[in-house]
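Page 42, continued from yesterday. The earlier attempt failed because a stray header line got pasted into the input along with the sequence. Redoing it now with the clean sequence only.
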Amino acid sequence: MVGVDLHEGMLERAKQKAKKQLVSIEFLLQDCTKLNIPVKSSLVFMTGNSFQHFLTNELQNALLQSVQQHGSYAHLGKRSIPLHC
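This time it went through. Structure tokens are written below.
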């Protein structure tokens, strides 16, 4: 499992939570519109209504295109979007 965030403080909080729960997650400081992660997955998901932080259609499209390179299905908060269309 890989966790990505643009904010180092959020990654530190996530690392603390993962350690407390005894789960192994690789955390990367990256812009989700330009993902460069070492895995592909059948599911890519974002939590906490993160999609709403991508305010323009251009940023939303860049996010979806970036995610599509790494997964075939995206769950973005309360939205589920098939990316293989």
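Notes: DSSP finds two helices and five strands in the chain.
Reminder to self: strip header lines before submitting.
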